[in-house]
Amino acid sequence: EVAPRASPPVCRIMDYGKFLYQMKKREKEARKHQKAVKELRLRPQTDKHDLEFKTRNAAEFLHDGHKVRVFMILRGREMAHMDMARAKMEEIIEMLSDVAHVESPPKLQGHQLVMVLAPKREVTQTAERVKEGHEEEHKPKSHGADEAVDEASSNAPNASEVDAASQS
Q1: Is 34-125 CATH 1.10.1040.10?
Q2: Helix or strand or coil: residue 38?
Q3: Angle, to 10 degrees, between the axis of helix 82-95 and the axis of helix 48-63?
Q4: What angle do CA 110, 56, 137 make, to 5 degrees?
Q5: pTM for this one?
Q6: Domain regions of the chain by residue span
Q7: What tens digit of pLDDT does each residue of 64-85 get?
């Protein structure tokens, strides 16, 4: 039914299987454009290179428009050295400050210190512009083919010229 409350009710006659297929296709397309929350898991003893590698991945997620949840997992005596864990979180915030802002500051949840970083609006907008630019480059240019067809049709005699030539 298109408009069940209308008088008389309006219905569309259609292939139900095709309708279901199109609905699934639309849902799949919507899921493709959906933004997810990516996760980064660290420990207070994570070394500098590993931290740089993980923050580089987080920066890519942020450029794609995803949010990043950072987990600092604390085990055993690490709970007593919360200052080290908070310092490591501040270091991550500093490393990603050009592409992200802190949506929720580091909070202790059980044996984990958790914070959420969201992409800065300018970063996602520039990433979208770059993406659109790449899509335009990959589109085939058919200007030459159209011009060739126009040129060929202008050189060909039209029907009235053919009739006049055949009668004389």
Answers
A1: no
A2: strand
A3: 50
A4: 135
A5: 0.55
A6: 34-125
A7: 888 889 988 888 888 888 888 8
